[in-house]
What does this fold into?
Amino acid sequence: MTFSRRILLRRFAAGALTSAAITPLDDYPSASPPPRPIRLDKNENAYGPSPKATEAMRASLQLANRYPTVEYEHLAERIANFHKIKPEQVTLAAGSREILRMAVTAYLPPGKNLVLASPTFDAIAHLARLAGVDDVVMVPLNKRYSHDLDRMLRESDASTGLIYVCNPNNPTGSLTPRKDLELFIGKVPSTAVIVIDEAYHEYVGGASEYASFIDHPLDDDRVIVTRTFSKIHGLAGMRLGYAVSSPQRSRSLSSSKLQWGVNVVAAHAAAAALDDIDFVRLSANRNSNDRQEFYNKLNARMLRAIDSLTNFVLIKTGLPGTQVVEHFRKNELLLGAPVPQMEKYVRVSIGSPEDMREFWRVWDLLPAHQMSM
Ligand SMILES: Cc1ncc(COP(=O)(O)O)c(C=O)c1O
It folds into this structure.
């Protein structure tokens, strides 16, 4: 897709606006109509970062001459304080995807296999294959769109180096109950390392079946939890994620760490974002309102979707997902990549009200067809 000069200028203007003034959250979004393409494809925070993070980024630009040594230590300490753990338990990276790459390097030497769900956020499967791992075992989700832990257990053996669990899961937005995960972890081979990806943790709210493995840790050195600043914190473009694990696991993850891969501006942004609890709370509330409104619109059209506890929804379209995605792309609106295992579904990230108005306008241009189940 090409972007016209007018669109680029509008984007620059929007960027200048947000950095020039600290905008109260309720004044977001400022731009109407929204800049093109409308991005409902990557589960970002549609309202941008916390104004405090924006301010920290601006202030830290003057440190661009420095290597991020002090910043790295400082941020690891801030994250440790936030989670009430030791800084040695924190591994920083340029996005949590980078942590997944480090886990592949550390725990999937030749002869080891990876077990994960399908569909899930499968970056780790691609990374493993790139690293030469042939044995990637993908276990379909169960009927509730939770991880089929019994089957994952059956597929795990002494050759299993890594088990990846995305909770809540992307692209379904669904949960795997905490108590089932605990039983599962207790039974998997003692040599397997379990990565629990909590990228969408802040959106879950008070769901009774859910508890973070950082906030409520198991006394089990095999568990590594990943988090990201790309979602609710609205800092996807800054590339910052982290893992929480035992100090020993952090050291083995770090064996393939890109030195100073986290830049000075991103580190300052993340520290400010972590402190801005009000922004996180407001973003979660706003998302749940916007998501409810999206479900209302789906219901009005007799469309079905999977219940989501995240900032995206997987909807059943009645048409091949590839066709729907292409139709939206032609109308300058990006949706999640088609899910091969669920070919009539598309994943829609929840955008601003303006974004979603445009989504429905373009939706209603789709050819008439049997959209419900
Ligand atoms: C479940 C999950 N984990 C990790 C990531 C990657 O996040 P990051 O931007 O920190 O690399 C994503 C991005 O969409 C995701 O959905």
About this structure: The pocket of pyridoxal-5'-phosphate is lined by residues 42-43, 95-97, 121, 166, 170, 197, 199, 228, 230, 236, 241 (CB under 6 Å). Confidence is low (pLDDT under 50) at residues 1-28.
